[in-house]
């Protein structure tokens, strides 16, 4: 299958996934495009270094979706993979790719999901709740943040002394070890 990865930040998940699938063509997954809503996103540099075409979308593009949908069609994208992409996915994209958009969330949904619940905010909330475990959720994307059907979850035990940053590190390791496997299996 041909996938497009959407990023807003550093792109460590995109890097792990691109490196895996470029090194293992037998997985049958090809990363054909990287899309970002931030021209400064580290994910764009990662894509350029690995010969992957990229597209930066601004709010106007995003509102109409014409250029974005045209690019996804031109690259014959089968599956959209969100990896640290922060904008809400609009109806036109959900309708154009029904059950073909997935996201990874750095917590065990349905807890710690929703608008504003991303990155360090999630791990600070887990810490404040004194949870003994956290984890990751891969889910289909609908028009609401973090509400689509869950495809996969994995948990990690936390140490009571863990800081939110240490919780984030544990969870990111879980993401890097699992997200590409889930995508390969879809
Ligand atoms: N949605 C969340 O955003 C972060 C992105 O990290 P990176 O892939 O840009 O390093 C990850 O923790 C992911 O769960």
From TrEMBL:
<dbReference type="GO" id="GO:0004644">
    <property type="term" value="F:phosphoribosylglycinamide formyltransferase activity"/>
</dbReference>
<dbReference type="InterPro" id="IPR004607">
    <property type="entry name" value="GART"/>
</dbReference>
<dbReference type="InterPro" id="IPR036477">
    <property type="entry name" value="Formyl_transf_N_sf"/>
</dbReference>
<dbReference type="Pfam" id="PF00551">
    <property type="entry name" value="Formyl_trans_N"/>
</dbReference>
<keyword id="KW-0658">Purine biosynthesis</keyword>
<protein>
    <recommendedName>
        <fullName>Phosphoribosylglycinamide formyltransferase</fullName>
        <ecNumber>2.1.2.2</ecNumber>
    </recommendedName>
</protein>
<dbReference type="InterPro" id="IPR001555">
    <property type="entry name" value="GART_AS"/>
</dbReference>
<feature type="domain" description="Formyl transferase N-terminal">
    <location>
        <begin position="1"/>
        <end position="183"/>
    </location>
</feature>
<comment type="pathway">
    <text>Purine metabolism; IMP biosynthesis via de novo pathway; N(2)-formyl-N(1)-(5-phospho-D-ribosyl)glycinamide from N(1)-(5-phospho-D-ribosyl)glycinamide (10-formyl THF route): step 1/1.</text>
</comment>
<dbReference type="InterPro" id="IPR002376">
    <property type="entry name" value="Formyl_transf_N"/>
</dbReference>
<keyword id="KW-0808">Transferase</keyword>
<dbReference type="GO" id="GO:0006189">
    <property type="term" value="P:'de novo' IMP biosynthetic process"/>
</dbReference>
<comment type="similarity">
    <text>Belongs to the GART family.</text>
</comment>
<dbReference type="GO" id="GO:0005829">
    <property type="term" value="C:cytosol"/>
</dbReference>
